[in-house]
Amino acid sequence: MSKVAVIFKIYPKENSLEEAKKEVSAMGPKGIQVEDVAFGIMVIKAMFVFEDSEASSSALESKLKKLASVSEVEVDEETLL
């Protein structure tokens, strides 16, 4: 079975960057970084890797959207490994 890598752009709620980073980190991403998008708007990029049959990226996206400190989530990249 192949593996899937998905990078999500996660927009934290106002003044919740550190809390959002902690919550996302607790979900077990393979990598996480913070980027300045523009005018002080920060976005968290998190990469998750899982078996193709294990879960879909939309299910993971839904879980990320339910985090208290997260405003918006979008898939930045998705690829088979």
Secondary structure layout plus pairing:
Layout (H helix, E strand, L loop, with lengths): L2 E10 L4 H9 L5 E8 L2 E11 L5 H9 L4 E11 L1
Written description of the protein model:
The chain has 81 residues and is of the alpha+beta class. The protein has a single domain, classed as Ribosomal protein S6/Translation elongation factor EF1B (Alpha-Beta Plaits), CATH 3.30.70. The chain is built from 2 helices and 4 strands. A 4-stranded antiparallel beta sheet has the order 2-3-1-4. The chain is elongated and about 40 Å long. The model has no long low-confidence stretch (mean pLDDT 92).
Q: Provide the gyration radius in Å.
A: 12 Å
Largest sheet: 4 strands, antiparallel
User: Helix/strand-derived class?
Assistant: alpha+beta
Number of strands: 4
CATH first level: Alpha Beta
The rough form would be described as elongated
Order of helices and strands: EHEEHE
Distance between the termini: 10 Å
Mean pLDDT metric: 92
Tell me the number of structural domains: 1
Strand % is over 45%
